[in-house]
Amino acid sequence: MERRTLNFGIFPTMLKKVFRDMFTKSKKDKKMKAILIYDGSFAGFLSAVYKVFDENLKEVSIVKPKHYVPDMFVEPIYVESSEKYAKRVWHSLQLKVTKHGAKELYKAFLSEIKGTEDVLLKYIVYAYASESFIHTDFSNVNVLRVSQVAKMVTREMHHIQDYLEFKATDEGVWVAAIQSGFDILPLVGNYFRRKYPDQKWLIYDQKRSYGLYFDLLGVKKIHLNTSEESEVLQLTFGNKTLSVGLFNSSYATKHKKIDKPEMNY
Description:
The radius of gyration is 20 Å and the shape is globular. The chain has two domains: 13-155, no CATH class; 166-259. The protein has helices spanning 13-25, 42-54, 83-110, 116-129, 141-163, 185-195, 226-237, 249-254, and strands at residues 34-37, 60-63, 75-78, 167-168, 174-178, 201-205, 210-214, 219-223, 257-259. Strands 4-5-6-7-8-9 form a six-stranded mixed β-sheet. It is α/β, with parallel strands linked by helices and 265 residues long. It contains eight helices and nine strands.
């Protein structure tokens, strides 16, 4: 069975900086009345969007904790992630902007470009303000930006799907590590599950310190400790094949932190 390799993402750092500057430019010299701080998850972002519409908030910005800069003139509001509200917003978006448009929003979110949340919020506000919204309405700058970034994320996703190489452990688990410019794992889990349905595998994102583990029953999001991560990276990036007994199912159940799969957006 063919297995290919990917150590680094293909997205140019300079180009990512250009989009970051574009996303944050509109916020300069404009006073915000409130800043919504969410937990960084997509469910958390959708919960913040729900709050914006539910409370009819104006001149608001949505940021992750690491991007929040205290301002004595701006009120910070911490938004609790709600799966109930997130699903409500997501289903509504799929009806308003189509499933394809909603998926582009999700891909743009996974780009992790600073300022993306505000562009997505403007996109969503524009969509609901339009009687007949079309997700290819590139006359709107925010719709255009979302489409451009979504295409870049899609190219990175296809690159990983085509060139990722797994290396076998003595315990029969294939492992691979990536260092992508985007948070790609949520987009490739189902692809590799279908491609290798009878093989246990682990794909680890070194930059974001989490991975996807397929145990033949389903794909789980996992977090490794420092020593486990070191072995994964040595195995995938080094010249020596190591014995990684850490990946058998009994160990995964007792010692790894395994999160429930996130909502299937």
